[in-house]
Amino acid sequence: MQIKTAEFVVSNSDVAKCPNSRLPEYAFIGRSNVGKSSLINMLTGRKSLAKTSGKPGKTQLINHFLINKNWHLVDLPGYGYARVSKSSKKTFQKFITQYFSFREQLVTAFVLVDIRHKPQPIDLEFMQWLGENGIPFSIIFTKADKLKPSAITRHVEDYRNILLEFWEAMPNYFITSSSKDIGKEELLGYIDNLNAN
Ligand code: GDP
């Protein structure tokens, strides 16, 4: 798939105010600083469609972008940033939970994790919560340019070993690098296939 048009639609913190359309949508979520904005900019071929985070944890909103006039890319807030207050953490949890529980247009979520790190409890807990709630998701490993291929394989195996304790199969996953333009075609092809079904 080629992304021909990518337009910002709306930002809000209330699932009820998300676009009232039947277009399929795909949500991107991960820890602050994981490289989510860079990935969205790589996918859409725009330099600054999603704001790369000068101040992690500040963009606590659900951002909808209309892609090729036929699907929505949803940029969700980064989680796990230590400096946000307890009350804003609670608000965050509430609207994210509501987004995933009530947004019928959601086809799949993409959970981003930094390929350099060992599996982190916060990411594993989030994946487990998605699984328990029947929300389909794939993993996107980011910043693959930072590791040698052998280390990439090893780190993916670490995830596989942990996740197979909970599930029968490893979720679908993608290896990406926004700096080196890796994984773009595969990811867009995956979305294209889902849109066609
Ligand atoms: P966000 O907070 O998840 O939206 O993360 P950003 O996209 O703002 O990226 C956080 C930091 O990681 C920035 O300094 C980026 O330049 C860097 N970064 C993002 N993607 C990559 C990547 O693929 N490779 C490398 N080496 N750095 C990246």
UniProtKB/TrEMBL annotation:
Domain of life: Bacteria
Pfam families: MMR_HSR1 (PF01926)
Family per similarity comment: Belongs to the TRAFAC class TrmE-Era-EngA-EngB-Septin-like GTPase superfamily. EngB GTPase family.
Keywords assigned by UniProt, alphabetized: Cell cycle, Cell division, GTP-binding, Magnesium, Metal-binding, Nucleotide-binding, Septation
Gene3D superfamilies: P-loop containing nucleotide triphosphate hydrolases
Cofactor(s) recorded in Swiss-Prot or TrEMBL: Mg(2+)
Function per UniProt: Necessary for normal cell division and for the maintenance of normal septation.
Organism encoding this protein: Tamlana crocina
Family annotation (InterPro entries): G_ENGB_dom, GTP-bd, GTP-bd_ribosome_bio_YsxC, P-loop_NTPase
Entry protein name: Probable GTP-binding protein EngB
Ranges for domain EngB-type G: 22-197
